[in-house]
């Protein structure tokens, strides 16, 4: 019986799981199904969610099973009430040493980007970072994780196979969609608490002051329904007039304002508004691209949008490949019309 483990990121303030945890569980469930399709004689895979912390909220556990987990393991200890890369990684390794698996998926969040390299280094295995695609393939009579990520300045995609188990990858939030219809709510016999045999006392780090949640001025794309995105096609070479107009339009219709990397690099729009491989990954109900060319670096960040409208004067623009509706026109004129309408 093969196992796909998912490192579940826990909010230690309220003991709930982050949204990306559910996204990875749903993807792992899809991989489990594909393993059977690739090799019908292969033993079934199981999806195991692994959360670390002093406590875990029961509703989060229920949602984890709904999202596709077959088993849920809570590594529980008082030492896990505050995040420490040393304590968390060593605690995970202690559990893993007696409960190995073939694949481990980590979120590519600040916590995941710290913890994944430490864990994989201890396990002496590779790590494919910031993946935008995951699938299972059969090679040399062995089912392997094929992890795809952008490379060479985000202009090309590389699919990478790991030589040793566990095969590990980090995945950015919003890359996949959480599906809460995959599993069952009846999980009483599949939830396990694992208490550390050797509780780890962090001696190299000392908490001098308790942390607090800081208010930020950044753009929160997480729950956005509509996003209006500005591309380089709006640049007149004189001033950021149409970027300002589009941001005002977004506010008028209660949408979020996004931008491509080229626009941000020119200093026309703040970095917080950037969407793409080096910005935010989004999945709104409606995504409208104004003057966006459709470079790979950008489309990686918006490809999971439910509906896409692209406006560009170039009928061969790459963005049209991702669009449900395409408008071949000057995006600046469209913005003027919309501003008059609203």
Sheet having the most strands:
7 strands, parallel
Spatial extent as radius of gyration: 22 Å
**Number of domain units:** 2
CATH superfamily heading of the largest domain: HUPs
Helix content: 25-40%
Can you tell me the CATH topology of the largest domain?
A: Rossmann fold
| Secondary structure tally, helices | 8
Mean pLDDT: 90
Structural class: alpha/beta
- The CATH class of the largest domain: Alpha Beta
Sequence stretches where pLDDT stays below 50 over 5 or more residues: none
The CATH level-2 architecture of the largest domain is identified as 3-Layer(aba) Sandwich
CA-CA gap between termini: 58 Å
How big a fraction of the residues is strand?
Answer: 25-35%
> What general outline do the C-alpha atoms trace?
globular
- N-to-C SSE string, H for helix and E for strand: EEEHEHEHEHEEEEEEEHEHEHEEH
Walk across the major sheet and give the strand order: 7-11-6-1-4-5-12
Give a description of the structure.
The chain is α/β, with parallel strands linked by helices and 342 residues long. The protein folds into two domains: 2-195, Rossmann fold, CATH 3.40.50; 226-341, Rossmann fold (3-Layer(aba) Sandwich). It contains eight helices and 17 strands. The protein has helices at residues 19-38, 58-66, 85-98, 110-123, 241-252, 261-265, 296-302, 331-341, and strands at residues 2-8, 10-11, 16-17, 45-53, 71-76, 103-107, 127-131, 133-139, 142-151, 156-161, 167-171, 191-195, 226-230, 256-259, 286-290, 307-312, 325-328. The protein has a seven-stranded parallel beta sheet with strand order 7-11-6-1-4-5-12, sandwiched between helices. Strand 8 and strand 9 form a beta hairpin. Helix 3 packs across helix 4 and helix 5 (241-252) crosses helix 8 (331-341). The longest helix is centred in the N-terminal third of the chain and has 20 residues, at 19-38. The radius of gyration is 22 Å and the shape is globular.
């Amino acid at each position: 019986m093969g196992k796909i483990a998912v490192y579940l990121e826990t909010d230690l303030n309220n003991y709930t799981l982050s949204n990306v945890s559910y996204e990875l569980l749903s993807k792992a469930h899809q991989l489990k199904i594909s393993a059977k399709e690739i090799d019908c004689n292969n033993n079934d895979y199981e999806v195991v969610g692994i959360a670390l912390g002093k406590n875990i909220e029961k509703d989060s556990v229920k949602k984890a099973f709904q999202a596709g987990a077959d088993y849920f393991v809570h590594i529980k200890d008082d030492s896990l009430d505050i995040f420490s890369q040393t304590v968390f990684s060593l605690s995970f390794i202690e559990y893993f040493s007696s409960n190995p698996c073939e694949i481990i998926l980590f979120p590519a969040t600040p916590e995941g980007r710290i913890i994944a390299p430490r864990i994989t280094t201890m396990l002496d295995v590779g790590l494919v970072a910031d993946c935008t695609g995951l699938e299972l393939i059969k090679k040399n009579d062995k089912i392997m994780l094929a992890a795809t990520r952008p490379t060479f300045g985000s202009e090309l995609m590389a699919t990478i196979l790991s030589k040793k188990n566990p095969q590990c990858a980090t995945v950015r939030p919003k890359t996949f969609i959480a599906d809460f219809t995959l599993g069952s709510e009846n999980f009483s016999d599949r939830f396990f608490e694992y208490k550390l045999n050797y509780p780890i006392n962090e001696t190299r780090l000392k908490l001098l002051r308790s942390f607090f949640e800081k208010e930020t001025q950044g753009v929160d794309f997480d729950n956005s329904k509509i996003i209006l995105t500005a591309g380089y096609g709006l640049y007149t070479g004189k001033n950021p007039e149409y970027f300002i107009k589009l941001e005002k339009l977004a506010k008028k219709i209660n949408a979020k304002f996004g931008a491509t990397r080229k626009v941000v690099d020119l200093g026309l729009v703040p970095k917080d508004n950037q969407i793409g491989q080096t910005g935010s990954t989004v999945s709104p109900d409606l995504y409208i691209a104004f003057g966006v060319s459709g470079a790979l670096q950008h489309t990686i960040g918006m490809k999971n949008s439910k509906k896409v409208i692209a406006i560009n004067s170039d009928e061969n623009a790459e963005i049209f490949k991702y669009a449900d509706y395409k408008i071949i026109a000057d995006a600046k004129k469209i913005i003027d019309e919309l501003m008059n309408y609203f």
